[in-house]
Write a structure and sequence with these properties.
heterodimer, A: alpha/beta, Rossmann fold, 6-stranded mixed beta sheet, about 35% helix, globular, B: alpha+beta, 10 helices, about 65% helix, binds adenosine-5'-triphosphate, binds magnesium ion, FtsX (chain B), Cell division transport system permease protein (chain B)
Chain lengths: ~220, ~300
């Protein structure tokens, strides 16, 4: 689904933040992405949904070179990739349920109300459907973000520190949701520095762990 | 970018009803909205008067210049014993003047008719020292009024060439100039409306930068985002302008009847089908709102990936 070859990226021209990265994300795979804070995990994910464009190398998403994508092409790519952003943003003037349904609305698709209800129940937000986003707790925001990320049934789900400010129980619940999605055939990539989360996941899915170290992407071994 | 915001697609987005409520993705902007509606109304109000001015002065210039083109009169106020001889001399002179199509001595009953408004129906024209009037119709090429005047002075000293050109010409050019000013004002009003709507749209777009960013991130196309803004501002501009136009048209309609005084001031209005002209103002306002907001949205979206 996503193919990178010798990819490099830098915010400022001369000094790349990420260099010489090669990776292929297969359908149905489950990946963790780790690395110290500031290593470039968020940056890596932004490259995946064409929020940033690579400075060097090649990257294709769903068979298309991202650098050749038009603005509408980028919008199309984002409809096929569900993203849970690190700093989850909602439209604060619309209730939670509508925020979750927003990707359908902006792509002109019909909102299936029973399905939306099921999705809300799945992320345990049924009671908050009509709440406004600023009224949600951190964990509720993360789950709402996950619901919004999956409503278009994307083939790939990217989650950036989805458990960043959650307690252990809530983290486990969210991980469970992501694992369920993976079991239903979706590829999942989670950026996190929470090793306990990775260990917990490894007991249930075949997860591969990628690590950004020294600007490069490495496949971490069985040391976890 | 160009393609995703092409006008046809935007037009379809604008004219289609919005059952899904896509417009709601942009939060309501109460105060900006009211200001936009008010400014559009004020501009439309002014535009109606500029339009009325342009149309009225146009009519006036046309009427005056067509009257100008028609006739000139020669008035002869000689003593009774000379009047017949001088009249004959003048008629002969006019016949030989190049550029004159016809010279006709007005018969007494027509002169009586002209005098009636001043002296009543039973004027004894014979008893009054009524001047003789000769109506001169100029040929297409016109004649040299100054040369004719000099010649008449020599041959018939009591004949006066009454040339309306001398006082009407400046009026015609004033009317024409006023019409140009009216049209220019319309242009200025249109430009100012465009500027004002651009400012309002830019303010709304800037205030909603975060909303636009979120929408892009979840896969909204530029056209979807732009339509939400363009629809809003086009509608406001049209609504405001419709209100302003209605008020101003009513005000023009309520001006005193033009026959009552027949002067320039009371002639300021619309005539016949001319009353349909103001209908174009809300349409123009909508078009201006559409173009201005679209340009602002295009520019803004370019900064968001
Ligand atoms: N827009 C930007 N412009 C310039 N530099 C940036 C920008 N965004 C991030 N950086 C820098 O790039 C580096 C990587 O940032 P990134 O957010 O990808 O790190 P991260 O691995 O996600 O960190 P964390 O675990 O804290 O979320 C950091 O040093 C950061 O300061
Ligand atoms: Mg990060």
């Amino acid at each position: 689904m996503i193919e990178m070859q010798n990819l490099s990226f830098g915010y400022s021209g001369n000094d790349p933040l990420l260099a010489d990265m090669s990776l292929t994300l297969q359908p149905g795979s489950f990946h963790f992405l780790t690395g110290p804070s500031g290593a470039g995990k968020t940056t890596f994910l932004r490259l995946c949904y064409a929020d940033l464009l690579p400075s060097g190398g090649r990257m294709a998403a769903f068979g298309q070179d991202v650098r050749g994508l038009s603005r509408d092409g980028i919008a199309g790519l984002r409809r096929r990739v569900g993203v849970v952003h690190q700093d989850t943003q909602f439209l604060d003037h619309l209730p939670v349920a509508e925020n979750i349904a927003l990707p359908l609305l902006v792509s002109g698709e019909q909102v299936d109300m029973p399905a939306l209800g099921e999705l809300l129940a799945w992320v345990q937000l049924s009671g908050h459907a009509r709440a406004m986003p600023p009224e949600l707790s951190g964990g509720e925001r993360q789950r709402a973000a996950l619901a919004r990320a999956v409503i278009m049934s994307p083939d790939l789900i990217l989650a950036d520190e989805p458990t960043g400010n959650l307690d252990w129980d809530m983290s486990m619940r969210l991980l469970q949701l992501l694992i369920e999605l993976n079991h239903s055939g979706k590829a999942v990539l989670i950026a996190t520095h929470d090793l306990n989360l990775i260990r917990a996941a490894k007991q249930q899915v075949q997860a591969r762990v990628l690590r950004i170290a020294g600007k490069r992407l490495q496949l971490a071994g069985a040391d976890l | 970018m160009k393609k995703s915001l092409d006008l046809a697609a935007l037009w379809r987005g604008l004219t289609r009803p919005d059952p899904a409520g896509t417009d709601r993705v942009v939060p309501p902007t109460g105060f900006t909205a009211q200001l936009t509606v008010f400014s559009a109304a004020a501009m439309a109000f002014l535009a109606v008067f500029a339009l009325a001015l342009a149309l009225a002065t146009g009519r006036m210039a046309e009427r005056w210049s067509s009257e100008l083109a028609q006739t000139v009169t020669v008035r002869i106020t000689a003593p009774p014993e000379q009047i017949d001889q001088q009249t004959a001399t003048v008629l002969a002179a006019l016949k030989t003047t190049p550029g004159i199509a016809q010279a006709r001595l007005l018969p007494d009953d027509e002169v009586e008719g002209l005098l009636e408004p001043w002296f009543g129906p039973d004027v004894p024209v014979e008893a009054l020292p009524v001047p003789r009037l000769i109506e001169v119709t100029r040929a297409a090429e016109g004649f040299d009024a100054e040369a004719l005047r000099l010649r008449l002075e020599g041959e018939a000293p009591d004949a006066v060439l009454d040339d309306h050109t001398r006082w009407r010409q400046p009026l015609v050019s004033a009317a024409n100039r006023l019409r140009v000013l009216g049209l220019f004002s319309l242009l200025l009003i249109a430009a100012a409306s465009g500027a004002m709507i651009t400012l309002a749209a830019k303010a709304a777009l800037a205030a909603n930068g975060q909303v636009i960013r979120v929408l892009r991130l979840i896969g909204a196309r530029d056209i979807t985002i732009a339509t939400a803004f363009v629809r809003r501002f086009t509608r406001r501009a049209a609504m405001g302008a419709a209100g302003g136009t209605a008020l101003a048209t009513a005000a023009v309609w309520a001006l005193p009847e033009m026959d009552q005084a027949g002067s320039f001031l009371t002639g300021l209005g619309f005539q016949g089908w001319g009353w349909l002209w103001p209908l174009l103002i809300p349409v123009a306002a909508a078009a201006i709102g559409f173009v201005a907001t679209r340009a602002a949205a295009l520019k803004m979206l370019r900064e968001v990936r």
